[in-house]
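Appendix B, example 12.
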Amino acid sequence: GPEPAGVAAETAAQDRPGLRAEFRELGSELVHYRELLWQMVLRDIRIRYKQAVMGLGWAVFMPMVIVAASLLVKYAMAQIAGKPGVEAASFSGMAVKALGWSFFVGAIGFATNSLTGNMALVTKIYFPREVFPLSAVLTQAIDSAIGSTVLALLLFTLMGVGMSVQILWAVPLIVLLLLMTAGVALFLSCANVFFRDVKYIVQVIIAFGIFFTPVFYEPQLFGPTGSVLMMLNPLAPLLEGLRLAVVEHHSLLDTLVVRVADGPQILAWQPWYLLYSAAWAILGFLGAWLMFHKLEFTYAE
């Protein structure tokens, strides 16, 4: 006869793999298709730079445009405050954060349409569909690696930024930035399959998100409360952490308190900011990856 409802539910729960086993399966599948992922990255690079006059120069040009815009804003703010100009350290900090922001918006810009733009492949053969948004992120990472090499030469030779052990903080910060960007890319590319106006939301984020992210400025300019609110943006601690570690040589394990224009003391950095962004990056990536996998069998519909 049929099993009682309680026994059937218990059997189903035993047959259902746990999260750890599910992520292990997802990871092994992605490793199995790693060659396909790499071929997708090479394809994206060839398409991006095919018949482009500047070629790989675009990898440097886009962050420099953001730096030039932020320099203009900084100069205007300095004139209003009665200061003679923009300090080299301030310019260097903007350049570091601009490179991180350029990577993020470039990756999600390409990743959002990665599934809808390859629907012919999605509907014909099986392979892990996350290959498409992840290849967009890795392609942008290669772009940013080229840009960061040029930026490093400028910072350490022309801008007078010294070397210190605190620069090593850039490694975990970059890993977290990659994870956060990959999580957003997986989520938006999946959402764009079901809701086609997602691409317009992404355009708004790309156009105006920089004003809500501390790229042009430091969060402490908004005062004690505004500084904390600004750091609620999960990207903010990663970008500020890069600036503090690379340019200011500040250990991210230490709290930093600053005073702006003879005003009150402002908590500019605390280690909890890094843990906050790390939680968003890791949990967001795993959650987006799981959601992407659960829905990928409905993409063809």
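Confidence is low (pLDDT under 50) at residues 7-15. The radius of gyration is 22 Å.
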